[in-house]
Design a protein that fits this description.
23 helices, Protein argonaute 16, alpha+beta, paz domain, about 25% helix, 5-stranded antiparallel beta sheet, PAZ_dom_sf, 16-stranded mixed beta sheet, RNA-mediated gene silencing, RNA binding
Length: about 900
């Protein structure tokens, strides 16, 4: 009855009699059904909208939250950042955006950025008067920007280029007189090409928009202004002949190249981007590295790339695949060409038709070999037995002898690097903090950005000094190890010298299998057992040491694994609880994937793989045992607050912590499925144990689409159901009332999708498991792929672990902070950039930052604080390991076979983990 009185009390006084009667009808009906509430049908509610506002909208769009406050805890410290303050002397300027369409003589759209820039530069020189002498900022594709409008909204121009090589050095545009311009318009040699250029007005972008964004207001064109300013800087570097890769640029200077072997070099350049910060507009400048093809003779490249001693040993089908779309310069005429393939025959036998003249009379074409043709041009080939490069078109081949061609400089290498190349790139790209500070400061001074006509016309000035920022250093959380002994990390590190693991396991039935011919299994077994006992892990002697026979090594990886398991079964009285696998190499071993799949998918056996080496000391075996203990359900250490159940906010209320990541195929392989992995905490109130769930999805798709996956029978086969059920079963039959999501790998443009697509999937998965109130969510993005660096002002060392910055260089409105949780003994530390998109839980800034720091200390594989929270690292490891289960190369071949298929190829599903290991930390 009280509910009925409340119901009538909300009816507006002006409501007519008919509506009153409708309310009375539903009220009486509710009393006749056990006094329960009856939902009003949506159609009836619409008719009653004039009397009662029914708030039922599941499509409300969430936006990133504003910063509620700043943290205060920690020791204050003054730092420098690689942001350079940008002064806006006025905000009245307006950028005009124009759409550009460039077509060649055959009416095909030009998509080469290099040629596009040359065409626009030539256009500005030729038609300067028609354009009122306006300076352009051109992005190399379809957008052109000016300060103020052009004389009219639409233009059609014809541009003639004498030389169309996209990598020829470009110069600054020269404003010429109309007479000079007219002469250039009609002059055309036989090598020149004609282009048509259409320019049409697209939009206005007022500089005032960025001023509004800096004040924390929502601005329609704030990001557009930053994009225009970035285009201005990129255009400067393009005119200097630099290679442009997104917001980075690389100059053609041999001092910037580092040989990575295999015909690949690391090229050091610079990154630049304008950013809005709470301290004002800033230019973020950093050192950047990309991979390029090592310039030089094509023959040298192929020999190095395939690691052969003689040119005759080259695998030419492999070479053809490697060379396709690369550019070369021919020595005999100094022209550049793009490779489309190789000839079928060597130069000495490859024929092509050539027209021969006898005086002024043209005679029919005759067939001639490539070797004879060049001999007639006084070019003697020394290696006519090699195939030719085809630099023509698919139906009109144009052959060049390989020995006459050199690789053009500054060509990006987009294929996957080997493990050795990756290690060399990391090693040679490192820079100490002081060196990096000097490089970026010198770059800002030497580029003379203030002299740019577009920037100067807008009143934009860039400071030459690094920005000072206020930071705080949070104390490292105390850990608990064996016998509940406290362990205080020192500079982000701790060890187990004279200490035991917190919760060591007991290993009784296990074996060692050896796929490596050169190792002493007895020694490895003995030292592992001795090290384990000193850490509290009781390890029985292995039941068997299983060696692979020499005949099996000739079989395929899958067959080798099957044969090894037959020997293991024959040597053990029952299924082992653990297998130690010795591999011939640490990374990229073809045995690893089949071995992991056999154990985790088919047999349900925990396994640890190692590659024996000469450096197998006590520290090495300790690191191996940390992984083994975690995989078998033990715990190496945990937070003291976690042990005493005193973690603020998290310990008092059942809280699920998620780490989410998507792993994509290697560069150059856009057809390989992406792998989405999510890990969830278990055994609340612990925050150190996790379970993983992994799925495949479409290639290069960043948003996870399998968090909620309803099937035809109504059941949910998504990731979240698996993790929610596991949390419930391991946390005293309690549902999570709070869910903290850490999401890795998304850019700022994708924040909305995380909040409105992925979060909605998680909510649906929760709702599908039964009635009850929804949990409160906190959604945090962790970004490592950014270019902000922090430096100590009065020390050559990296910033101390626990450093947090939430002022000065952070977003002017949104809730973000930088944290450097780890110690950086080598190179320059890269802080993680955390964006808090949603916080329904209501953390204080200090409690949230301390939780993030604490989660960097619960990584069970390590005795150091890591740079990003452990759940994200675990998700990354789970995706990488499960990705080894499948041969995606086979999928790629089949998926690209049917060009005319109307439907996209199906994505192969990953094999599910065996029930005996699905809840383990197999990914450690």
């Amino acid at each position: 009855m009280a509910f009925g009185v409340l119901w009538f009390s909300i009816i507006p006084k002006e409501t007519n009699l008919c509506v009153y009667l409708l309310f009375l009808f539903f009220f009486l009906l509710s009393l006749t059904v056990n006094n329960s509430f009856i939902w009003i049908p949506d159609s009836m509610a619409a008719k009653m909208a004039g009397a009662v506002q029914v708030l039922k909208d599941d499509t409300v769009k969430r936006t990133p939250m504003a910063r509620p406050s700043n943290g205060r805890e920690g020791k204050p410290i003054r730092l420098l950042s690689n942001h350079f303050s940008v002064k806006l002397r006025g905000v009245d300027a307006v950028f005009y955006q124009y759409s550009v369409c460039i077509k060649s003589e055959d009416d095909k759209v030009v998509d080469s950025k290099g040629i596009g820039r040359k065409v626009i530069d030539k256009l500005l020189q030729t038609y300067c008067s028609e354009l009122d002498g306006k300076d352009f900022a051109y992005d190399g594709e379809k957008c052109l920007f000016t300060v103020g409008p052009l004389p009219q909204n639409n233009f059609e121009f014809t541009v003639i280029l004498e030389e169309t090589s996209s990598r020829a050095a470009g110069g600054s545009p020269v404003h010429e007189s109309p007479t000079q311009a007219n002469k250039k318009r009609v002059k055309r040699s036989h090598l020149a090409k004609k282009f048509s250029v259409d320019i049409s007005y697209a939009a206005k972008i007022p500089l005032q928009s960025v001023a509004l964004a800096l004040r924390g207001s929502e601005s329609e064109h704030g990001q557009d202004v930053l994009r225009v300013l970035d285009v201005v800087l990129r255009q400067q570097q393009a005119k200097r002949g630099c290679l442009l890769v997104r917001q980075s640029f690389f100059s053609d200077d041999s001092r910037n190249l580092v040989d990575l072997t295999g015909g690949v070099s690391g090229c050091r350049g610079l990154h630049s981007s304008f950013r809005t910060t709470i301290g004002g507009l800033s230019l973020n400048m950093d050192v950047s590295t990309t991979m390029v093809v090592t310039p030089g003779p094509v023959i040298d490249f192929l020999v190095t790339n395939q690691n052969v001693r003689d040119i005759r040993d080259i695998d030419w089908p492999r070479a053809k695949k490697m060379l396709k779309n690369l550019r070369v310069k021919a020595k005999h005429n100094n022209m550049e060409f793009k490779i489309i393939g190789l000839s079928d025959q060597p130069c000495s036998r490859q024929m092509f038709p050539m027209k021969v003249r006898n005086g002024n009379i043209e005679i029919k074409s005759v067939d001639i070999t490539v070797q004879d043709y060049f001999k007639s041009k006084q070019v003697e080939l020394t290696m006519p037995y090699l195939p030719c490069l085809d630099v023509g078109k698919p139906k009109r081949p144009n052959y060049l002898p390989i020995e006459l061609c050199h690789m053009v400089s500054l060509q990006r290498y987009t294929k996957a690097l080997s493990s050795q190349q990756r290690a060399m790139l990391v090693e040679k790209s490192r820079q100490k903090p002081q060196e990096r500070m000097r490089v970026v400061t010198d770059a800002v001074k030497s580029n003379m950005y203030d002299d740019d006509p577009i920037l100067s016309s807008c009143g934009i000035e860039i400071e030459k000094q690094l920005t000072r920022v206020d930071a705080r250093v949070l104390s490292a959380p105390a850990l608990v190890v064996g016998n509940s002994e406290d362990c205080i990390p020192n500079r982000g590190r701790w060890n187990y010298n004279n200490k035991r693991l917190f919760d060591p396991v007991k290993i009784e039935r296990w074996a060692i299998v050896n796929f490596s011919a050169r190792c002493d299994m007895s020694r490895i077994s003995r030292e592992l057992i001795n090290c384990g006992r000193s850490k509290g892990i009781f390890i029985e002697c292995p039941h068997s040491l299983v060696d692979e026979d020499s005949q099996s090594r000739r079989c395929s990886p899958v067959e080798r694994v099957e044969k090894m398991f037959e020997k293991v079964k024959a040597s053990l009285p029952g299924p082992p609880e653990f297998l130690l696998c010795l591999l011939p190499e640490r990374k990229n071993c073809d045995i690893y994937g089949p071995w992991k799949k056999k154990n985790l998918h088919e047999m349900g056996i925990v396994t640890q793989c190692i590659a024996p080496s000469n450096k197998m000391n006590d520290q090495y075996f300790t690191n191996v045992l940390l992984k083994i203990n975690a995989k078998l359900g033990g715990m190496n250490s945990k937070l003291a607050l976690e042990h005493r159940q005193m973690i603020p906010v998290v310990t008092q209320i059942p809280t699920l912590i998620l780490g989410m990541d998507v792993s994509h195929g290697s560069p150059g392989r856009a057809d390989i499925p992406s792998i989405a992995a999510v890990v969830g905490s278990r055994c609340w109130p612990l925050i150190s144990r996790y379970r993983a769930s992994v799925r495949t999805q479409s290639p290069k798709v960043e948003m996870i689409d399998s968090l909620f996956k309803p099937l035809d029978d109504g059941k949910d086969d998504g990731i979240m159901r698996e993790l929610l059920l596991d949390f419930y079963q391991t946390s005293q039959q309690r549902k999570p009332k709070q869910i903290i999501i850490f999401r890795d790998g998304v850019s700022e443009s994708q924040f909305s999708q995380v909040l409105n697509v992925e979060l909605n999937q998680i909510i649906k998965a929760y709702q599908s498991m039964g009635q009850g109130d929804l949990p409160k969510f906190t959604v945090i993005i962790a970004q490592k792929n950014h270019h902000t660096k922090l430096f100590q002002a009065d020390s050559p060392e990296n910033v101390p672990p626990g450093t947090v910055v939430d002022s000065g260089i952070v977003h002017p409105r949104q809730y973000d902070f930088y944290m450097c949780a780890h110690a950086g003994p080598i190179g320059t530390s890269r802080p993680t950039h955390y964006h808090v998109l949603l916080d329904e839980i209501g953390f204080s800034a200090d409690n949230l930052q301390k939780l993030v720091l604490s989660l960097s200390y619960v990584y069970q594989r390590s005795t150091t604080a890591i740079s990003v929270v452990a759940p994200i690292c675990y998700a990354h490891l789970a995706a990488a390991q499960m990705g080894q289960f499948m041969k995606f190369e086979e999928f790629a071949d089949t998926s690209s076979g049917s060009v005319n298929s109307s439907s996209p190829p199906s994505i192969p599903e990953l094999p599910r983990l065996h029930a005996d290991v699905c809840s383990s930390m197999f990914f450690c």
